[in-house]
Amino acid sequence: MIRYLKHEQIDKKRWDTCITTSAEDKVYALSWFLDVVSPGWQAIVEEENGMYITAMPLPGFHKMGFPYLGQPFHTHQLGIYTTAQSSADIRVQFLELTVKHYKFINGYRFNLSDTEALQALEGAYELTTRYTRYLDLNKPYPDLYRAYTRDRKMNLKRAQRAGLSMFESDDIEPLIQHFKTHIEHKVVGGVSEHTYQLLRDLFQVMKQKGVAQLIYTTAGDKVNAGCLFFKYNGIISYAFNSADSTGRVTNGRTMVLDEIIRQHAGKDFVLDFESPMIDQIDHFYASFGARQVKYLALRRNALPLYVRLIRNVRMKIYRAFFSSGVAEEV
């Protein structure tokens, strides 16, 4: 039986059992992660013999009286999590139920395991192609290093010659304050304090679960770059970062990423760069030898005409006002 569930109807023990026994099993879909990034999240589940055998998290909310579905901050991929017992056409049924419940869907991202099945539905739904970068770490470090581009090797040597210090930390605040000072003004539309608080809360939970790794680089006693990683089920997610002008010139983030690769080389890990679709940033991640992988995102706008007109006007004003904004690697 397939059901749409409001938040209070979700059995989180059964939910997490379904996620962890699915082939996908990503940290973003676990109940404790969703509780932080999207309090009140809903779901679609397929039930059999009292168990959830398929699950789709829905971080939905109401705006102007209409149900919206989006992608929470710091949440790379969600989608449909299936177990061996799932129905053959389950993704079709879940997609139908999703668009039935949400009038507006803003780039809801599916996981990589959904890609092949959903490609056949691109004509029926507004599914857009997105990409990230994966680096398989199951080779010795020298082999991984050889796959770096010539420029990346040179920049790593520059970082080493710059005399940067590198250390791990359990304190997220320097990274947040660093981002506020050096990056926030370049982000189109700015960054709300709510987004920073969400990152603080998420880091605390991830730290308690033992799946967060935070690394800073310094020149002297001043932080010039910081990188946050989430590690779960063989995936290392490059979740958040910041660098000032010194950190960029001395290649602090290159040094940290190389250290992560070095630490996990020869092990059954994949580094997910969570690459945004910005050519300059994608080129940077590709320079580590990372391969491009495809996933899909769902969009929909079935709002009444008057709401769409109001939204279009607001978006035109927004784009005109922030047209000089600069995208930044985060």
Please tell me about this protein's structure.
By secondary structure, the protein is of the alpha+beta class. The protein folds into two domains: 2-124, Gcn5-related N-acetyltransferase (GNAT) (Aminopeptidase), CATH 3.40.630.30; 133-294, Aminopeptidase. The protein is 37% helix and 28% strand. It is built from twelve helices and 14 strands. The chain has helices at residues 12-21, 31-37, 90-101, 115-119, 141-146, 150-161, 173-182, 193-209, 245-249, 252-264, 279-286, 305-321, and strands at residues 2-5, 42-48, 51-58, 60-63, 66-69, 81-82, 104-109, 126-136, 165-169, 212-219, 222-232, 235-243, 270-272, 291-301. Helix 2 (31-37) packs antiparallel against helix 8 (193-209) and helix 6 packs across helix 10.
Question: How would you describe this structure in keywords?
Answer:
BioF2-like_GNAT_dom; ten-stranded mixed sheet; Aminopeptidase; Acyl_CoA_acyltransferase; 12 helices; EC 2.3.1.-; alpha+beta; single chain; four-stranded antiparallel sheet; 2 domains; disordered C terminus; transferase
Write the layout of secondary structure elements.
Blueprint: E1 2-5, H1 12-21, H2 31-37, E2 42-48, E3 51-58, E4 60-63, E5 66-69, E6 81-82, H3 90-101, E7 104-109, H4 115-119, E8 126-136, H5 141-146, H6 150-161, E9 165-169, H7 173-182, H8 193-209, E10 212-219, E11 222-232, E12 235-243, H9 245-249, H10 252-264, E13 270-272, H11 279-286, E14 291-301, H12 305-321
Parallel strand pairs: 5-7, 12-13
Antiparallel strand pairs: 1-2, 2-3, 3-6, 4-5, 7-14, 8-13, 8-14, 9-10, 10-11, 11-12
